[in-house]
Amino acid sequence: PRPPVSTTSVPAPPMDSGKDALLNQIRQGTKLKKVVPKDRSEGPRARQGSASAGAGSVMGSLGAMAAELAKRRKMKLESKLESRPTAAELHEKNILREEERSGVSPMLAAAQAALKKGQLTDSLNQQLQHRPTKDDLVRRRVLQN
Q1: CB of 112 closer than 8 Å to CB of 99
Q2: Is 71 exposed, middle or buried (0-12, 13-18, 19+ CB in 10 A)?
Q3: pLDDT 10s digits, 27-40
Q4: What is the pLDDT of residue 15?
Q5: How far is CA 56 from CA 19, 44, 49, 104, 142, in A?
Q6: What is the four-CA torsion angle of 56, 61, 64, 65, rounded to 10 degrees?
Q7: What CA–CA distance (Å, rounded) separates 44 from 50?
Q8: What pTM was estimated for this model as a whole?
């Protein structure tokens, strides 16, 4: 069995803070001040008024400085690109390998370079095994004793 439901109104809890006092006034019918909302449709610069004029000029000069800096960087990059050496020049100076210049894939170029290096190593080892000794060179009068 449930307890019977009361149809009488529940008394409001005791009010002891400032918020509770305001709520009590509202319940008693006290009229509140009408609040006029601020127009925020024009953004923060429109609300600043005359103070924004000084800030706007500073922002404008900073923007001009940034644009000038970007222009200088672009000109410097263009001059560097114009004076850049060609692939043929880099190959002549042994900066760029033939494999890199020919457009072969990097993995294949690395395998080709390793094979070429191995072949050179084998060739040098073979030549070193067959070179004449010091005594042979003295007998042939290539070296003096």
Answers
A1: yes
A2: exposed
A3: 777 666 777 777 77
A4: 47
A5: 43, 12, 11, 56, 88
A6: -140
A7: 12
A8: 0.33
pLDDT at 19: 78
- Give the 3-state secondary structure of residue 58: helix
Retrieve residue 26's tokens. Answer: 């509202």
By CB atoms closer than 10 A (0-12, 13-18, 19+), residue 9 is exposed
Q: How much is the pLDDT for 28?
A: 79
Instruction: Give the separation between CA 116 and CA 21, rounded to whole angstroms.
Output: 94
Gap between the Cα atoms of 30 and 112, Å rounded: 93
Q: How far is 22 from 89, CA to CA, in rounded Å?
A: 86
Phi-psi region of 29 (alpha: psi -120 to 50; beta: other; left: phi over 0): left
Q: Outline where the chain has alpha helix (H).
A: 18-28, 44-48, 51-82, 87-92, 98-102, 106-129, 134-139
Residue 96: how many other CB atoms lie within 10 Å: 16
Poorest-pLDDT segment among 39-43, 81-85, 91-95 = 39-43
Is pLDDT of 43 > 70?
A: no
